[in-house]
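Here is the promised in-class demo. Please do not try to memorize the tokens; focus on the logic of going from shape to residues.
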């Protein structure tokens, strides 16, 4: 398979070349989310609230999946940078096995425990709760394939082959866009139709990965499962996975608080998050790019390039996040009205965007720093930062809603993001820049 050598060439050019396909994938995903929410929004605020409620538990699955995706991404990129082909094969084999177990267990859990999970949110709306469960149950088999699609994408990114991953992701997203109106309106399946469309799209993506990159992703029985390699993947993936799981659990607790303000508030947060994903089109691309870039250069012991790559990514990210933050502050209603016409929901969602806008630059610093720490094999640093300050959202929200209402929840999110970005940069200055800047 063709590999991109990230240890050579102009740093800014390499970072941009790596980030663009990931950004393209994020743009496609945003386009899909936009169209999906337009179709679902046509069903009303209750339908949006149903999918928004279910999405917390889908996000929990992605967080669990990070146990494999992060660890495998770190170790395969290191092995590729060090030109250890046998080790690459062993890491992919071990990751595939662990992923299979996690995917099966979590998919079954969504089916059999879905009603309890939705009930925990205290939505106090029978229609929303029923639709949320069926959306979750139909999404369970989709999650199985998504677990593997995310792992395969990360492995291709470790090779520097981001364009191939983009093409496959684009295929899935286009299919999802086509399937959505068919299953939601033509077959009159409502929110379950949206889940069915996602299931079919992810199944097609999985099949393409297995056919086109069979030589990489097919389990090699001769190599088997190296227990030490599996343990390394879990050890490196656990901190970030735990951090993401905690992040999702905190969001679920916040959802209980938000639900006390009605289903319109839940729908508003779902819409706000979708709009906020505009910023992650670029920042998510930079996060993935810097992680792969740092991984290979760390394996090749080219430390000065690591610092240069981080600084280049930070410059791009801050400029972009500043521009989006200004749009969120001054014209949030324009974005919200693309999804919904309910005045109450528009007001709440616009307030969400205005408040989180103040933390966008800090979120960018956090994500770029996360990519750096993950790339050098120190995921515990960003995980610890996130665990501490994400957990603060709950007590801050409970205090602030007494004085600000629902806006208190949004401010708890913004303030914690500011703290995370600030601490992440300080730790970079202390732990990385001083030690690597003058090394080659």
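The designed amino acids, position by position:
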């Amino acid at each position: 398979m063709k590999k991109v050598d990230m240890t050579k060439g102009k740093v800014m050019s390499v970072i941009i070349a790596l980030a663009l396909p990931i950004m393209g994938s994020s743009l496609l995903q945003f386009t899909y989310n936009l169209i999906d929410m337009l179709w679902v929004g046509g069903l009303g605020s209750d339908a949006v609230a149903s999918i928004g409620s279910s999405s917390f538990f889908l996000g929990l699955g992605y967080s669990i999946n990070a146990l494999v995706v992060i660890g495998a991404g770190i170790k395969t990129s290191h092995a590729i940078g060090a030109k250890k082909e046998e080790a690459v094969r062993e890491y992919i084999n071990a990751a595939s096995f662990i992923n299979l177990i996690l995917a099966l267990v979590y998919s079954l859990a969504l089916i059999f425990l879905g009603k309890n999970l939705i009930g925990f949110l205290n939505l106090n709306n029978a229609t929303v709760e029923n639709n949320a469960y069926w959306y979750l149950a139909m999404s369970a088999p989709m999650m199985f394939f998504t677990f593997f699609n995310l792992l395969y994408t990360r492995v291709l990114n470790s090779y520097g082959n981001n364009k191939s991953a983009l093409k496959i992701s684009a295929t899935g997203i286009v299919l999802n866009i086509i399937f959505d109106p068919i299953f939601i309106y033509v077959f009159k399946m409502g929110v379950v139709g949206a889940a069915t469309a996602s299931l079919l799209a992810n199944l097609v993506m999985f099949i393409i990965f297995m056919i086109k990159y069979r030589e990489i992703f097919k389990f090699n029985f001769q190599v088997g499962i190296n227990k030490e390699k599996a343990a390394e993947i879990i050890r490196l993936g656990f901190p970030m996975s735990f951090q993401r799981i905690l992040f999702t659990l905190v969001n679920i607790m916040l959802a209980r608080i938000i639900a006390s303000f009605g289903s319109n508030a839940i729908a508003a947060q779902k819409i706000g998050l979708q709009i906020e994903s505009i910023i992650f089109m670029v920042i998510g691309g930079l996060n993935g790019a810097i992680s792969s870039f740092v991984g290979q250069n760390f394996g090749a012991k080219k430390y000065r390039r690591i610092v240069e790559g981080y600084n280049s990514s930070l410059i791009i990210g801050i400029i972009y996040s500043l521009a989006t933050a200004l749009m969120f502050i001054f014209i949030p209603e324009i974005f919200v009205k693309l999804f919904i016409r309910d005045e109450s929901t528009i007001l709440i969602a616009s307030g969400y965007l205005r408040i989180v806008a103040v933390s966008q630059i800090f979120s960018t610093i956090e994500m770029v720093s996360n990519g750096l720490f993950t790339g050098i094999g120190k995921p515990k640093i960003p995980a610890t930062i996130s665990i501490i300050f994400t957990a603060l959202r709950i007590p801050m929200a409970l205090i602030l809603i007494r004085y600000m209402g629902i806006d208190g929840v949004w401010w708890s999110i913004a303030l914690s993001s500011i703290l995370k970005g600030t601490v992440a940069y300080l730790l970079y200055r202390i732990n990385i820049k001083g030690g690597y800047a003058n090394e080659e």
